[in-house]
Specification:
The chain has about 425 residues and is of the alpha/beta class. It is about 40% helix and about 15% strand. The N terminus is likely disordered.
């Protein structure tokens, strides 16, 4: 297979917008008033948002978010710089190795009767963690419709912004970036990439020790399993429903047969695994393995730009497509700084913010905004974004596969551990 790369950015970014293409301004060039204007005749909504801004002034929002990616960490720092300058709202990034750490904190506080002044103001969350907090009524809201910039979202019932791993968002969390699962290779070493999980087994058998995945306790390792499950299970539609013992056993039987076959051919014979995707990508760069993975289509381009990956690094996806989802932020029910968290969440939805995030030199993540809700000027500026040979087009990425119901993720971790960690 010849790896396809793009030569024209607009082809990839047909749903995206941009700002700040020639360099990052220290503060966005729009005013706080303009950035929060409500284009509606509902004066009470404008008044309520003004009250939120006043309550938020002087607050420090403790944003608990995964800290394993330097570019994302830098973006969160930038967000805090902007919200402090515009609204006098600071952001403290509490770096997590797992989102479950923040969820556990909120659960412990509720058990102790601490229903106010919680340590967690905002969480980068989705999937099983969102489901757990929603079921246990640990989330503030619904509040999404209170944010002026929610007008840029498609919030229809079955839209990507309204469903999280098949679970209705119900206004309890705000989308802020899109993600797609991709594989990475050094195209100088691998010209014929496996285009399915069945082909990946054959590739691993022919190239022993050159493939691995992050530990299954890491979300990237779990995503690898879910990608294989969707491709190998007889009826993928069953994955959209909560798993039962019977449905799980039937659906995962082909997955375990496939994994039993591939495991001996993995790096170190599948007896140990890299801790996360960053370590695996370093292994790719060092020539220790030939395939890595990421939940970011811009991973190869970003790695090249930062010097972490060779210029021949490229991404590829199986012919059936790959998993995709939206990253959300949510506010716990007992957050100390609810108003400030709403201001930060609203800022994340500002078109200028989404454009800055979309810049490959900043983060390169897909925008969550509905392009049909943007004005002509907002929709036009994306074309000025810098490009990269290693940046895939939307056509290259193919179909987006739906995330299974969150219950499948939990059971996959448990059963993999029982089978392979003994």
């Amino acid at each position: 297979m010849t790896l396809h790369v793009n030569s024209t950015l607009p082809k990839r970014l047909g749903v995206m917008l941009s700002l700040l293409t020639a360099g990052v301004l220290s503060t966005l060039s729009y005013s706080a008033t303009a950035s929060t204007a409500v284009t509606t005749t509902d004066v009470s909504s404008a008044d309520q948002w003004q009250q939120t801004l006043e309550q938020a002034a002087g607050e420090t929002v403790y944003w608990h978010a995964w800290g394993g990616d330097v570019r994302t960490n830098d973006f969160i720092t930038w967000v805090g710089d902007q919200t402090e300058a515009l609204y006098d709202v600071k952001v403290k990034h509490v770096k997590l190795s797992s989102t479950a750490e923040a969820v556990t904190q909120v659960i412990a506080e509720k058990a102790a009767g601490q229903n106010t002044n919680g340590a967690v103001d905002m969480i980068w969350i989705n999937g099983p963690n969102f489901l757990a907090m929603k079921q246990q009524e640990l989330l503030h809201g619904p509040f999404v419709n209170q944010l002026p910039n929610s007008k840029y979202l498609d919030l229809s019932t079955n839209s990507a912004a309204s469903v999280d791993f098949t679970e209705a968002v119900a206004g309890l969390e705000v989308p802020w970036r899109l993600a797609r699962f991709v594989f990475l290779v050094d195209s100088k070493r691998v010209q014929q990439v496996p285009l399915s999980m069945a082909q990946m087994l054959i590739w691993a058998q022919e190239n022993p020790g050159r493939l691995t995945h992050p530990v299954i306790s890491n979300f990237m390792g779990t995503t690898f399993l879910k990608q294989a499950l969707i491709e190998l299970t007889p009826d993928p539609s069953v994955l959209q429903q909560p798993s039962t013992e019977q449905s799980f056993a039937l659906a995962t039987a082909p997955l375990w047969r496939w994994y039993d076959a591939i495991k001996p051919h993995l790096w170190r014979a599948g007896k140990s695994f890299p801790e996360n995707e960053a370590i695996q990508q370093q292994m790719l760069s060092d020539g220790e393995v030939d395939i890595a993975m990421a939940f970011d289509p811009a991973a190869a381009a970003a790695g090249i730009a930062s010097g972490l990956l060779p210029t021949s690094a490229r991404v590829f996806v199986p012919s059936q497509g790959t998993l995709g989802n939206i990253s959300f932020v949510a506010i716990p029910y007992n957050a100390s700084h609810t108003a400030g968290s709403k201001v930060v969440a609203n800022f994340l939805l500002q078109p200028e913010t989404q454009a800055h995030m979309q810049n490959i030199d900043v983060l390169g993540s897909f925008s969550v905004l509905d392009p049909n809700k943007l004005d002509a000027q907002q929709a036009q500026v994306f074309a000025a974004l810098p490009s990269s040979e290693a940046l895939p087009t939307l056509v290259d990425l193919g179909a987006t596969l739906l995330e299974p119901h969150a219950s499948w993720t939990t059971k996959l971790k448990q059963h993999w551990s029982q089978r392979y960690s003994q």
